[in-house]
Amino acid sequence: MIIFRVLSAGMPRFPRGFFARYTPEVAKDILGSVLVRRIGGKVLSGRIVETEAYRGSDDPASHAFRGMSERTQVMFGKPGFAYVYFIYGNHYSLNVTTEAEGEAGAVLVRALAPLRGIVEMRANRGKERLIDLTSGPGKLAKALVIDRSLNGEDLINSKKLFLLRGEKPERIGVSRRIGLSVAQETEWRYYVEGDPFVSRQNA
DNA sequence: GTTCCGATTTTCT
DNA sequence: GAAAATCGGAACA
Question: Whose CA is closest to A56, among A73, A40, A41, A39?
Fold first, then answer.
């Protein structure tokens, strides 16, 4: 509990209302905040340097485009919850739900700059170089031990996974989202300009 | 440095 | 049955 309070000192969490907004705005505003994972008595954390916005019926690239399903129900639920999905038979991806309850939305966390727990992240990833730890959605999920057991976790109140306010980046880059076969014209990817941990330089 | 391709399982058609 | 909000290794330059 002491560690918990020290960790949070001067860096309060976001209120739920922060996430109850237009998803691309949340995706942009969440840059610079700190993602914290507490597991096995350790604290693993990183500064968010890359995100993407996904909405609902107006976004063909979204899992929620065709409505609610067992997988996407959390995207339609309350804002400020974790949406974790498994993809390509190998990887987990972490999202934070957005928009008012009943409206689908989520921000994909695509890259972190490692802060705390780097020793553990190296072990979790089986990689030594810092740049290989959290510079992509699948990588950061593995580094921070994020899997489907965290799907539906309330990030406003959780002790295992949460976000802390951080310093707003000086320059924010905008681009098309990565890895899509539809809605390729929509520029809903946001990243900290010049940050080495951003997953792709040119996109 | 770049591009190409296979892995592996969930989800939806 | 096919595609998927990815990654890492191989081949090539």
Answer: A73
Å from the A2 CA to the C8 C1': 40
Q: Residue A80 CA to nucleotide C1 C1', Å?
A: 36
A37/A55 Cα distance (integer angstroms): 25
Which residues have CB under 8 Å from A103's CB, separation 6+?
A56, A76
What are the angstrom distances between the C-alpha of A118 and each of A70, A85, A122? 35, 24, 6
Q: Which residues of A114-130 are buried (b: 16+ CB within 10 A; e: fewer)?
A: bbbbbebbbebbeeeee
- Tell me the pLDDT tens digit for each residue of A19-62: 999 999 999 999 999 999 999 999 999 999 999 999 999 999 99
In whole angstroms, what separates CA A126 from the centre of its chain?
A: 22
A128 touches strand B (CB under 7 A): no
How far in angstroms lies nucleotide B13's C1' from the CA of residue A67? 15
Tokens at A84, concatenated: 């974790």
> CA–C1' distance A91–C4 (Å)?
11
Nearest-CA residue relative to C1' of C3: A88
What are A51-100's pLDDT values in tens digits? 999 999 999 999 999 999 999 999 999 999 999 999 999 999 999 999 99
